[in-house]
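Structure tokens please, single chain.
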Amino acid sequence: MTQSPTTDLFDLKPPTLPPTSTPRRDLVERLAVAERTVDALRARLWQDREVGVAIGIIMVVRGVDAAEAHDLLIETMAQTDRSLGEVAREVIGTGGRPFATSVR
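Here you go.
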């Protein structure tokens, strides 16, 4: 599955239509907004899955619970100035090797 760029779902606003808008144009523009919203939701769902997989890997590698594994992901994200999705993809790609030793 190809990942689309992540969009902040809270930034999505209904389209502002010009006064000369026609009903057909209005529907086309609303459809475009709906398609962008669906794409953003799919990207977010995919990232949530990756984060969940990464948490599971860290739990196994470090022998910690889910909350501590999540904290380690967040801590690594802050230390490396990367997104949570990027850190999660690295954990998945490396099998959690960077977390085999303490990052604290």
